[in-house]
Amino acid sequence: MPLRFFNTYSRQIENFEPRDATGRKVDIYTCGPTVYSRAHIGNFRAYVFEDLLQRHLELRGYKVHRVMNITDVDDKTIRSARESGIPLTESTAQFKEAFFEDIETLRIKPADEFPAATNQRYIDKMIEMIAILISRGLAYQAEDKSVYFRINKFPGYGKLAHFDLTQLQSTGRVKHDEYDKEHIGDFALWKAWDEEDGDVGWESPWGRGRPGWHIECSAMATALLGDEIDIHCGGVDNIFPHHEAEIAQTEGVTGKKFVRFWLHCAHLLVDGQKMSKSLGNFYTLPNLLEKGYTGREIRYALMRVHYRAPLNFTWDGMNEARESLGRIDDWLVRLRETADEEKKLVGTAQRATPTSEFEEALDDDLNISAALGFLFESIRETNRAIDRNELDAAAANAWLEWWQRANSVLTIEEEAGPPPPEVAELAEARTQARLAKDFPKSDELRDKLNALGWEARDTKDGQKITRRAGA
Ligand code: AMP
Ligand code: ZN
Fold first, then answer.
1. Class for domain 7-285, per CATH?
2. pTM for the complete prediction?
């Protein structure tokens, strides 16, 4: 079965065909963070979903070229800098840095390019695109000196969002003095400078001002990926007006179909509401790290539900993620032990060899629930087989090889590293106690290790120390 994705544009599952079907090159544009504050884990649900998409395409042999923009000038970034009393570039630099730290913690593969909207190269491109749109009657300068996109002149406007133009409401991302616009749905391409902008602004044929948020993405996407791209992603809140506007602007300039596949993830919710800065119901990554959760636990918690299903953030969910990872860790320890030992096979175990169910589930619109279902079912069965001495070293190795592939997408394996010194000391003391046949002491030390979240296992090669499941 070919790869297939739900395309927001058609509202249908479609077989995935990139433009470059033979070269297997896939271009992806993903809307990145607006750097006016530290991103919250709702934002990271979107970025983890995009990471899963990229990694699965790579597992399937595609060569992905991904661009993620950084929105470093818009109403929010300007307000945030003004409120902190520092220049815009200084304000956005700290949140950019925090963003890069956070994606590393979550093991998100960095995009190939992270263009920033304020780069003069892209500002020039935005101005060039706006000038073309004006020359074609698709944009106009209003009395307030701002330039707006004339949505009634673009026939396909509303197609992505499946929107009736008569229902258009003000979006909050446009200037408030809407009487200057011909239609309430017309959106700003270029915002004329006003006092609140301070020293932020660029010269343009329409006077000093700054770009609207939507044109930033159209310019950066086409500058780096060309007029047509394979996949464009974001959260569902990006569908309208942001992505609708991107289509209108880009296709208004190029006359070509901008994007083949539009993929949007559902929101991370808190008590049924979107996690967002404005509602104040958000957690940042450092908030969760302070509570003792690790990056891979947070990654797993954000990834384990299908991207098109809303995901409720709960502490129970975080703990379930921790338990699931503990089961995987334990399983890997057992598999490695089995792979090391030349076990005699007693019977024929079911699922003694892995199948391609995991990859096939992900081919099906990234069905992570089915993929993880297969993983945990396999863990149960192989564990049972190990208990009954029915899994031999070759089968254990086959599963370990399979895991390499699965983990190249999931990226949730615990990074091997030495245990902390206090754990190493307790482990050494326990080895000595066992050599001295002091079993009460050895049990006492095992409990101490347990309390620190570590497990001591006695194997024929001596004691092995691993993180305890669920710790
Ligand atoms: P922003 O910085 O607001 O432009 O958002 C960056 C990305 O995060 C966009 O793709 C949004 O759609 C996405 N996003 C924002 N809030 C959430 C949420 N609660 N759940 C999932 N994605 C979100
Ligand atoms: Zn965007």
1. alpha beta
2. 0.89
